[in-house]
Amino acid sequence: MSVFTTVSFEQMQQWLKGYALGELLDLQGIASGITNTNYFVTTTSGRYVLTLFEEHSAEELPNFLNLMTHLAERGIPCPHPVKDKTGAALGELNGKPAALVSCLAGKSLETATPQHCAEIGTVLARMHVAGASFKADMSNLRCQRWRVATAAKVAPFLQAENRQMLDAQLAFEQAFDTSALPRGVIHADLFRDNVLMDGDKVGGVIDFYYACQDVLLYDIAIAVNDWCVNPDGSLDAVRVQALLNAYHAERPLGADEHQAWPGMLRVAAMRFWLSRLNDLHFPQAGELTHAKDPAYFEHILRNSIEKREQLLGNWVN
Ligand SMILES: Nc1ncnc2c1ncn2[C@@H]1O[C@H](COP(=O)(O)OP(=O)(O)OP(=O)(O)O)[C@@H](O)[C@H]1O
Ligand SMILES: N[C@@H](CCO)C(=O)O
């Protein structure tokens, strides 16, 4: 159950007086989710999601909310923050920063088909194009410096073979020059559990709280490493092709991006291998136990290193 901070019906009624959303009809805690407190809020004007931010400070949040507003206003299926009567999207409820956003249709998928992957490719490319006009300073907190520092923390917990892979990957990243690749605002966590699928269509992309400015191809690699992976950590060529082709149709990928693709898949796998190792070995005090299995990304990274030529393969039309 992921209601860490309880909000009563009466408190919500009171809070809604600051909004032009009509009267509260229903308030339901959302069981899934592991970081924030979320509620479905139904009023006489529609259905919304209330988020009480359990980890981010009020200073960090405006960029994310502004980004969602920017993307939603450009037709990207993502939560649209609702402004209160003073024009603010971020408020405070029960001592936590809080926001109301539009409620999107759909639910996240366990398994993705090539058709789903194509949908994701299209939405991701449109998000990158729409994000180009968003101006804000949002650095990637999971950057190479973070990867080097985190690798040093988790290395002592690894068996020799994995430690070798970690060192080899760090050396690879040191020499991997991505500075000339197209950059922009990226979601940086576009896993299946952050996308609500409404039938075969994307109902909405959620969880923009890792969004930052970085290499666009990196965002594609993050998505491919989740949406197009077989249980053994290898990539399913059909799903990869579907995602890349659909992306390419919206934002054509360049020869430099083609060249960098196998390396980018490695970097994307490394980032999540490291964060999962870090969460496992250094859990935050008071945090819900939710460490995800690092071995999953260990296999994906190993596959990316061993299958380099195949990954470059047949790419886009
Ligand atoms: N805008 C939305 N529209 C519809 N459903 C939503 C929306 N935002 C969140 N949800 C629902 O709430 C659930 C929990 O949200 P989310 O995954 O963002 O939780 P979190 O704790 O904030 O983040 P995380 O679990 O990724 O750390 C989602 O799986 C989804 O079912
Ligand atoms: N999507 C991440 C968790 C949030 O960053 C993972 O599966 O490891």
Automatic annotation (TrEMBL):
Keyword Plastid (UniProt): no
EC number: 2.7.1.39
Entry-linked InterPro entries: Aminoglycoside_PTrfase (IPR002575), Homoserine_kinase_II (IPR005280), Kinase-like_dom_sf (IPR011009), Pseudomonas-type_ThrB (IPR050249)
Listed name of the protein: Homoserine kinase
Enzyme class, broadest EC rank: transferase
GO molecular function: homoserine kinase activity
HAMAP family: Homoser_kinase_2
The protein's annotated pathway: Amino-acid biosynthesis; L-threonine biosynthesis; L-threonine from L-aspartate: step 4/5
Keywords from the named record: Amino-acid biosynthesis, ATP-binding, Kinase, Nucleotide-binding, Threonine biosynthesis, Transferase
Protein family membership: Belongs to the pseudomonas-type ThrB family.
Start and end residues of each Aminoglycoside phosphotransferase domain: 27-253
Catalytically driven reaction(s): L-homoserine + ATP = O-phospho-L-homoserine + ADP + H(+)
CDD domains: HomoserineK_II
